[in-house]
Structures
1.
Amino acid sequence: MCDPVGMIGLAFSIGSAVMQYQAQQDVMNKQQQANNEWLSYQRMKARQSDANQEAARSKADVARANTVSELNAKNQQEGQETEQKRLEDEMMPTVDAPTATSQQSIGDQILGKAGGRIEQHYADALTSATRDARQRMQNLAAIASTTGSQFGLANRANSLLGESQDVLKLQGNIRQGDLVAYGVAKAVEPIKYSINPAAGMYGGIASAAGGFASKLGAAAAGGSQSS
Amino acid sequence: MGGKGAKSQNSQMVNFEMEQAAKAEQKEADRKYRLEQGMANIKSVFHGGPGQGDPFAPIKENYKTNLTELHNANLNDTYNKALDEALFATARAGQRGSTTSRDIMADIGGRKYEQQSDGTYKAIDYGQYGQAKNKITSDIDKSLGDLNTQIQSAEDASENQLYMTEDPAIAQNEAAKLAGQIPAVPQYNSLGDLFKPLVVGATGFYSGYQGQNDFNQAFSGKSPLSKGSIKTSSG
């Protein structure tokens, strides 16, 4: 009734199953751990890359915002007025009293020499000429400051845009390089586990032995019954 | 019977990949540092280091001084010639000291000093002289603007070199070379005729001549006091 060989075989079978189960559990546990580690690594690299990208993007954005602010209507108007004033001072320089009184133009030298109506006519002509000249220079300064003078609106805008372009180009280049480096980290794969061949071998042997023992037990039981 | 049931299939490969990732990260950090260093070097060549002024200020000042002197020399020469011509022409036409001669003087122009409310004086260049001075100021301003454009172009070329080589030392050398190639002396282009040709008293002179001629014919050489000396339409 209780076949000892069969029991041995059963024990071997049970043992084999247990070994197989343990091996599989070990694989699953280790794989899970490897996956978790890989996930942590990828998350860390992603955070680092995001931080680098954000730092570069912020620098570029600051440069862009500064330029946009400088190019708004109010600042452009201030820039134009400053340039207009600079040009007016270039064309109508300020001198001190000693310089002004010591230097007389030819026109001023003959002023007061004619007398009468000719003198009045000449004084009026001089006044008209200087008034016209002042107006002309103010108009010229206003026009030049809005167009192509050294620091006029056109050159001012080009200069500001050029400065921010330098920053944008550099930060863009840095972001591209960071993405390339992150790409290498993203390509790292998780460690893959499989059942240890040695553990499989022992299980297989136990399974085979159990099967043999079962057969042996069955054969022995059949022989004792017939006798 | 037991023993570890799990065996890794690709741990070596994974280790290699992680090593490569670490190297790529370090390489990128080094490259970023070189780019930032190179950019700072270029900026110092073209804009001066911290606390330093504009390295091109002496060149810009030289441009302004040089062009001002050259243009003013030409202007003063032609201005004096215009004044001389006005003096002689009005004298030849018998209009010296007249309103015509003073109109001509106002038209040729000069520099007048106008007192401001704060006691200082503003120099006002009027007439053709004033227009010539304005032309000179515009020309000098344009030359300085062109100089700024040249400097900017050299800086852009240096930055392109940096991005190609990613070597801050090479970029700095290239920047210094390009900055040195910017001419220290401006190109002088004469502004041409600064004063309009003077036509003084041609009409007045001719009228005067013709008037005298007509008078002579009318008197037929006789004394204006003798009878029949004035021709009339009937005779």
2.
Amino acid sequence: MSRRTGFRAFIAAGFLIALLLAFLVAPHASSSPDGLQKVTVDQGLGGHSGGGGLRDHGLSIGVAGVIGVTVVFGAAFGLSKIARASRSRTAPENVA
Amino acid sequence: MHIPDGLIDGGTSLAGGAIATGGVALCLRRTKQLLDDRQVPMVGLTAAFVFAAQMINFPVAGGTSGHLLGGVLAAVLVGPWAGALAVTVVLIVQGFLFADGGLSALGLNVINMALVGALVGYAVFVAFRAVLPRTKGALVFASGISAALAPVMAAIVFTFEYAVGGNGAASVGAVGTAMIGVHVLIGVGEGVITAMTVSAVLATRPDLVNGAKPLRLAGAVQFDTPDAVGATS
């Protein structure tokens, strides 16, 4: 690339990719049990096989995924923003 | 590898919760001290991407699938502390909103995937990076190989948790062998996905790859945009 991607454009593009992964790709993901689930089933530990919690909802996988991606983005953004902001108030250079 | 309710007993789950709380508190403190303003949206994006990627199970072996855990990816992008927080947010949202992973096991899941995955995984990444040349390719390789090891390490820690408080008649040896074995395979997927993602971010905005900082100092990547993280001009 001769011109670097702007910061906002990069974040927006990345967020869009995450949304598309959740909405378009996830519904076609493998429905086999994951490693831990398979082990619990095979070892008689009472595990259930097939899919994850998202698939047990009335919402389609894609819609649930889009909701989750958005909530996670907001929560992680908010958490780190709060953490960062709490530094500003107490940083020595900000105290008169 | 989300532990469901009931697999690990109450006492062990409680202890896991206490350890996880302490670990997350430490991550919050370090993030407060170290996080750059520019990285705040990147933490959000990293968590969102890990969440989405965790939905995409890939087949690994007879009737078994795996999915990205994401700890090393998060750590390489936004540093180990914020990376662990990002994965923790993913696990909390999964547990509370989507019933993915038992809530009583949330502490153990945070330990395995966020703390072991991001913090220990990052330590492995740093070790590889230290002995490799300061090039983008080597950085991608270091990310990939440490990511490949992360699910194995998480499986080992899980086996220990099962040994301490597992509910069920299966022997620790049988569970451990099976868990570690399948997570070696899952690690291959984790490594490939992590390497590809790090490579993509390195190619577009290397300043947003926290783990690439030594490369900037060595002149291997250019941080030449006005809004770059860590720009010196």
